[in-house]
Amino acid sequence: MKTLNVSVKIKPTGVFRVRGYGDPLMIELMGLDTNLTGPNFNHVDLWHPVGGWGAIHKFQILDRQAMNYLISIQPNDFNEWGFTLAQKMNWLVGVTDGTTPDRPYWTEGAKWDGNWHTFSFGIMVFGHQLVKVETDANGKPREWVFNTAFPNDPRKRDVVFYKPVGMRRSEIGKFTHQTHPWFIQRATAANHNPKPNSIDYNPRGIMYHPVWDLRDWRTNYGSDLYLAKDFLI
After folding, report:
1. Which residues, 6 or more positions from 106, have their beta carbon under 8 angstroms from its beta carbon?
2. What is the tens place of the pLDDT at every residue in 15-37?
3. Are 122 and 58 in contact (CB under 8 A)?
4. What are 106's strand-pairing partners?
5. What does the mean pLDDT of the chain come to?
6. Cβ of 109: how many Cβ atoms within 10 Å?
7. Long-range contacts of 193-197 (CB under 8 A, 24+ apart)
8. Averaged pLDDT for residues 143-158
9. Which of 70, 99, 112, 131 is the most exposed place for a label (fewest CB within 10 A)?
10. What pLDDT is stored for residue 10 in this prediction?
11. Residue 98's pLDDT is what?
């Protein structure tokens, strides 16, 4: 009698896939539609009781260790996609002189490979990627309920939120996208061609983004940021 060996990957408790650009619910609630915004990185914003929505005015405060790690996890896939490390990092990390940043990450004082003095991340998760949320002793996601409205729907309601769980500082170097895709996400984009809301998983070849845990890399609004349950599958 032959034995069939089957390897089955099971998601850990508290791991969900994030909706993103082009998802009907995200268009309704957040306006994530290239018909409305044009091409964009495929961002899904977190919420704060005071700061509300938005991934620019709420930002995570990073450091040189974080920058070095971000650089280190970018794959060398030039032969396949034709993009250098510098092109990947220029897509991920902009530079600002106080004007509104236009990339997911940004530095002040110099570019990412220079002697910058601040390094920030517009707090979000990438759409169509996995994310992990805080759970109780039974593995059930912890829920927080706030009365608020979504950006594209001003009607206030009770909204259920989860708290995202990211990679801790002590875990730097321990994970890969292949082993922990909820901690090391692929950076995705939403394009308007060949049709609206075309999701690009390789904007400059494959690019990776760590979900920086809010306990170790706090934001300018502290660590109490939330991800709407409606945004997860």
Report:
1. 93, 94, 95, 96, 119, 120, 122
2. 999 999 999 999 999 999 999 99
3. yes
4. 94, 120
5. 95
6. 13
7. 196/22, 196/33, 196/34, 196/35, 197/21, 197/22, 197/33, 197/34, 197/35
8. 97
9. 99
10. 65
11. 80
Question: Which of 144, 111, 129, 118 is CA-nearest to residue 187?
Answer: 129
The burial class, CB within 10 Å (0-12 / 13-18 / 19+), for 131 is buried
At 32, the amino acid letter reads L
Tracing tokens 């660590």 back to the chain, one arrives at 223
pLDDT of 3 strictly over 60: no
Read out DSSP for the chain? Answer: ----------PPTTEEEB--TT-HHHHHHH---HHHH-SEE-EEE-BBTTTBS-SSSSEEE--HHHHHHHHHTS---HHHH---HHHHHHHHEEE-SSSPP-SSEEEESS-TTS--SEEEEE-EEETTSEEEE-B-TTSPBP-EEEEEEETTEEEEEEEEEE-EE-B-GGGTTS--TTT-TTTEEEP-EEESSSSTTEEES-BTBS-EEE-B-TTTS-BTTBS--BEEGGGB-
Q: For residue 220, which of 32, 51, 88 has the smallest C-alpha distance?
A: 51
- Give the residue from 224, 205, 229, 202 showing the smallest Cα distance to 214: 224
Q: Which residue has the tokens 């998802």?
A: 23
Residue 38 neighbours by CB under 8 Å, 6+ apart: 192
Check if the beta carbon of residue 125 is closer than 8 Å to that of residue 209: no
